[in-house]
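#struct-help
A.M.: can someone run this one for me? Single chain, 115 residues.
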Amino acid sequence: MAILGFHFSGFYKDVLFNKLKTATIMKGEHFFNIGEEVQIYLSEKQNLFDGVDEKRIGKAIIQKIIIKKVSELKNEEAISCGSNNLEELKSALFKWYNCNDNSIITYIKFKPDFF
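D.P.: on it. C-alpha cells below:
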C-alpha cells in the first residue's frame, strides 16, 4: 500500500486537531484510491516541502475524491476544508494556487486519525 503525505501549514493545526478540516483541495487532477492511507504533516515554514521543521501529526484514510472546476464547489465542501464558507475558500484558492472559477481542482475527503 502506498503511503502519501499531506503537508499543511501550521495555520491549519487547530482545525485539523479539532477535526473541522476533513478535506483538502489540490490544484489539477490527482488520482488516489478510496481507503488509501495518508500521512499528515504540519510545517511552520511557508515552503511546506523544504523538509525543515515538519511534524508528522497522524494519518488519515481517503474517503472520497472528486475532480471538478472551482466554480462547481459547494459550501459544505468549503466547510469540510476548514473554511468558514465557499467565498472564503475560493479566495484562498485564488491566492494560493492562482486559479480561477474554471480551474480544475481535486477535492479529497479524508477521515483523520491523529495522536
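A.M.: thanks! The two ends are 21 Å apart (CA to CA).
D.P.: also worth noting: The longest strand covers residues 54-69.
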